[in-house]
Amino acid sequence: MIFYQPGRHKEQGFSHDPFKAVVSPRPIGWISTVDAEGRSNLAPYSFFNAMAFLPPVVVFGTGTHPDGTPKDSQRNVEATGEFVCNIVSEALKEQMNKTSAHLPHGEDEMSFAELEGAPSKLVKPLRVAAAPVALECRYLQTVKLPAWNEPAGNYAIFGEVIGVHVNPEIVENGLIDVTRYRPVSRLGYFDYSTVTEVFQMFRPD
Ligand SMILES: Cc1cc2nc3c(=O)[nH]c(=O)nc-3n(C[C@H](O)[C@H](O)[C@H](O)COP(=O)(O)O)c2cc1C
Fold first, then answer.
1. Which CATH number fits the domain 26-194, given the four candidates 1.10.460.10, 3.50.50.60, 2.30.110.10, 2.60.40.720?
2. DSSP one-letter string for 33-74
């Protein structure tokens, strides 16, 4: 086995830190928020996952800007207590990527990527109308994570899912068929993947 400690991957011949390539595929939380003035914001986060089921809880991990100021998603979630996590279908991959642009605070990536917003039911941020699934979330807490590049920081932001929108076209006999929208996931480097095949296994007990 090759062994390296984080930050020392080059000593083992890795040109890039393999961490994100090996913790993969990672789902992408496409986070829509509003700021304190109600202006919309949208950005993808691949440090994202579900953490609990009863009730459902999701988390996304965010770095800050190099000077330590929070990215808009963190700033808005903490200011308003709400966010929507949109799920990215293969059809939306280019627009998802476009919304990662660093626009000035208050400028809306949803219109920048020519996406339509649709109203949420229980929270203020719009959901991405074309997303196959959108999770309306109530902010729970922020956990500060270790940071090597201070004053830049790393934070994990937790939210409880309080409402779920599902496009009926991806439902078959009461079950979600992910192959109908092919969720986009993040691998390492500039690599992405989608789900094209599904198999089943049943637990031993
Ligand atoms: C597929 C993808 C995944 C990303 N995942 C993360 C992430 O997990 N954490 C993070 O801080 N930035 C991530 N980024 C970068 C942010 O999307 C980018 O910094 C964005 O401008 C932040 O927007 P905001 O300031 O509106 O929140 C990702 C970008 C892409 C394209």
1. 2.30.110.10
2. EE-TT--EEEEEESSEEEEEETTEEEEEEEEB-TTSPBPHHH
